[in-house]
Structure formats: structure tokens, C-alpha cells
Amino acid sequence: ALSVKTQPGSRVFRADPTREDKSTRQTVISKLPRQDLNNAELRMRPLRILTFSTLYPNEAQPHHGIFVENRLRHLVASGEVESVVVAPVPYFPFRSSRFGHWATFARSPETEHRHGLSVHHPRYPVVPRVGMNAAPALLAAGSWRTVRKLHRIHDFDLVDAHYAYPDGVAAAWLGRRLGLVVLGGVQQGRG
What we know:
Mean pLDDT: 81
Structural class: alpha/beta
Largest sheet: 8 strands, mixed
Order of helices and strands: EEHHEHEEHEEEHEHE
């Protein structure tokens, strides 16, 4: 299920993402804190979404988080939404394969286009052994400049975050700074 929190102290909306009708989109739209557009104007154009996830493929890791990309491609193909992706990667200075998996992060491009979607990969610092405690703050700080710049260009309606921790926490902080609704998605395996 998806959750939308519009403003501090407001109601939380839960929706089943498998529903095919437009009532979910209309309910989310009706809760958007927009002063410059009325609901009729907002419904006439696609919803502008900033997709935020460290689980997203890139040129150096083409299969990393492919399920997020596939879901987003189908969502955009519906014509109901437009999206720009911010998929942060850990900062690592060396590209040599002798550094193993860490070098893959260094080989990730700063920006790229995948299947018609603009994808940005800002870098964020990772601190070994204590990193998970600080990860949301480091992720948000490393992404802030890119997210703010993209919001100025695209005037997003909401942030669609994947992976609850640390991505969802960082996205909530970024969304609050921008005054945007944040949707948090959690992917579950079957078994």
C-alpha cells in the first residue's frame, strides 16, 4: 500500500497501487497542497513526480533495482504522470576494478536517459560501520542540490520514494523542505 502525508497533522491516505481506476489518482490530487492550481487544472495535465530511490538501474549497474524502473515505465506509459528520477549513488573516488563493487559507484554517470526518463545520480557520502545511522541525513544532503534544481525546472507535485530506509526517510526530509507530498513504497518479495 502507498501512504500520502500532505501536511504535518493532516490525515494519511492509503491506496492500493494495483487498482486500475482513476479514483486513487483523484484522491491523491485532491490532497495536494497546491495554491497555484485548482483541482480542475491539475487534473488536465499529468501529475509531475520526482522519483527518489537508490534502487534504480544505471549504466554501470543495469539490473540494480530494475523492478522500480519497470514500475515507473508502466506508470509513465499510462499518460497519467510525468517523472524525473533522482537515484543517488554512494561517492567513491576510484573507478579501478581492483576496488570491487565500490568502483561501480564511481563508474555511474552523473545523468543519463533510460527508456525516455531523465535519471540523475547525485553522489552522497557513506561512512562504513556507522553509515546506516547517518544514511538518511547523508543521502538527503548529497541529493538536496540536485532535487532543488530539478524542482525549480519541473515544479513537481509529489515525491515518489522507494525503499523505506534510508531512501524514504531522506525523501520525507527533502519533500518537507520543498513543501511536497511524499509517497513511500516498500517492495516485498514473495515466498
